[in-house]
Input
Amino acid sequence: MNNTLSFSPNTLLLTVCFGLLTTLAEAAEVMVSAVSGNPLGVATIEIPLASPVPVGSLPRLRATGSAGQVLYPASSEVRMRVTPPSERPVPQPGRGRLLGRVGSLIRELTGADQDKEATVARRVSFLFPSDEPFLVTLGDSDGPIGQYKLVPEKEPLLHDERLRQWWADYTTGVKTQIDLSDYPPWVETYLVAMLSGRLRLPLPDWYETHPSNEDALVSTLKLIAGAEDEKEVVFRQAAAGRMSADPLASTKVTLPAAPSWAPSFPQGNRPPQSPSIPVEPLAGSVPPECFYLRYGSFENYLWFTDLSNEYGGDLSRMATLRGFRTQATESLESQLNLKMTQMSRMLGPTMIEDQAIIGRDLFLNDGASIGVLFQVSNVFLFRSSLQNDRSTRAGSDETIKLSDTRIGGKSVSFLRSADNRVRSFLVENGNMILVTNSKTLVQRFLEVAAGAPSLAQSPEFQLTRQLMPLEREDTVFAYLSPRMMQGLVSPEYLIELRRRLASQAEITLVHLARMASAAEGNPIQSIDQLVAAGYLPADFSQRSDGSGVVSLGAGLIDTRRGARGRFLPIADVKMKSVTAEEAAWYETIAAAYSNRFSHMDPIMIGVRREGVSDGKDDTPKLERLSIHAEVAPLTPAQYGKWAQQLGPPTRVAIQFAADDLVAAQAHVASELLGPPTHLFAAIKDSSPPDLEDFDGLLKSYRSLRQLPGYLGAWPLPGALDRLPLGIGRGTPVGPGMTRLIGGLYRYTGGGFSVLSFFPDILTASLPYWASVEVEDAAQVRARIGDLVGSQLEGWVTDQLYHRSSQTSAAGAQFLGMLSRQLKVNPDQAMGSIADIFGTDLQCTLGGRYLYDADAFHWKSTAWAANRPPIDPPLGYTPPLLQWFRGGQATLTQYDDRVVVDAVVDAQRQ
Output
């Protein structure tokens, strides 16, 4: 594009520096262009500014047209380069010009003069489907700008040029949106891939998915944990039609071998077993390859359920709200048909003696292999109650069927729907009753009942009950068995996990393709027709296992796995062969585990609760949670350097000052520090600098100078004293006090070496510091006081609010993007989001998203204006501070186990 405006560098620089924000030039010549093409034409409207303005200071242009004429708009800025001081000719000495240049250079280096471009025009480009003239209305968040008539021309060469320009603007805008967003970029990724394929345009460099050089162990953990970047790689491949591009993807081979796992206890090195240590009967019915979450009583289960319900069934909401609402608990209860009712609350304590959740995995958002195991006192009444609920559910919905099936020679009740929305087996053995979504769990439960080894008989679990005996009376007890964790790394699990990610991506792509076709005025529902029209890639859903995506009513399902979010449990997926590509991928992982991580160390966690007084009277007003966790037996060697950073466990602890609100200490082993040393740090009750202030070396230094705390070591490590030129010893300013370079102060005495930017803090805290002997041995200790009513409360509130406000704004921006790019009507937006992501969007500030038709803008009821307030509104309390009233924790690493103990005081709603 030819820009005719020109300005001298000095004029531009002065304009940018003084921040002259100007409006559009009233009489400026607006460039309007529309070129027809196949399958879509491209149009551009460019409006020059009266004066240059700083880059990014103007709102995004919005173009709207009748009858869907404006498609895939891209708003951009036309920029002109500004010459910074470092690139201008050096001035001659005299009258301070050279000194002024030096000052400008300093400002440039420190970030005060970083603008090298200014915006001289605004541009919006878009595609259109028709050759007929049409009107386009231009505006932005500040209001309407004008209306323009576009008359398409047929100029193929100009069409190609303008199309490339639009593509550059569009993909740049998409990348910016992805970088700023707080949600999975499925829509943006799909649009770039779909338009690239239909318009024969190259995918941008940032889209290309190159083979990852990431460590095999790390990438496996991320895949199991459902990390977004792992999902993004698969989604981009599916959207671009590259799932079958590898020739190895069509070659079938046998299932590769699992890693060579070493035994938890070497031969003859098992811990001595004591028959006097009791093990609960419930564990005797659990297969050893399952995790085990035991409540011990129905009352404990009710406590955990009520706690979860206080936060919408998602305990992560205790820390912060996320942009999407997790519905895993609700979905699982519905799938198993175990929804809590008032009647079950009343009858549960009289019939249920013990209760646990068991399973092969914890993929709750995708379809876990999971079940609930009950030990009951009255089998007939409990079974009758469950069967009555199952009959009622089947009778109320014709898509749900209730029948009896035979598994392992035993009749089993099976409640199910075709999409796995409901999938519930009911099986019993004596007074043990299992309700599960997995046929494999039923088979294994019956095999254990017939005499196969159980979890209770495994040496790892017997060691667990020695370390965490039943006398503890844990409210909740969790145990992750080695065989369960090995199962997660088995070829069946990991390869199926990848296939599930591909299936989830394809279901999302179909929903997006339908939206895109409707946005272009050509609504298509058929998957085959969407492929033929270019809205889906040519090799869409060509999978090695023969499965695919099909319509079921108004929804979509995987022909083998069911509905997204309720996929067939992986334990029930039978895998006989894989592709050569899948085998090669998994063999790399298996080799890494065999050679570097051949042990899966058991993990056990116990939580006990008790009521405590808040100190004002004897009435329990707080709930104290005591958490004890162990990894035992432990194989430290496979954790590498991370297991070698701590010194031996010690009963010596550092005593802090009384007004230290946050304090931590660690007994570390370091070649730099010498013999094992206690490192400790504390922060006073204060308002620390914002976390954003730590961006960059100079900013971090300035922020640390504002942080009212200290960092110390005992016994005196001497590392500072060994620095060259004596810079660690500093200049004496008082007894035991020296001033170091950079304004840092150091106190030395009594074996302590403590650093702070505040000498008065060192002086005031000095009487409290001491090395004292405590009852428990540990290497790491930490405590946080009650933040409510402290100065730090305001800082924590500000930080958590800032994060939540960004996420809240990102949700509104995403809704706006749906409106602009896919023409989604505001009243259908929330349903469209559920189709795309399989869950609901929520405002992280607790409000509701609404569409402002006058401003063409999405906003939340939690906002006072069109954007979230900069500062937290009066009365705002982040989720964490609604319940957290202080806590402390210790970590102890022994030769054969790691122990973590924590105590947290909580204010229940």
User: Anything to note?
Assistant: Confidence is low (pLDDT under 50) at residues 1-27, 105-114. The longest helix spans residues 791-822. The CA atoms of residues 411 and 778 lie 53 Å apart.
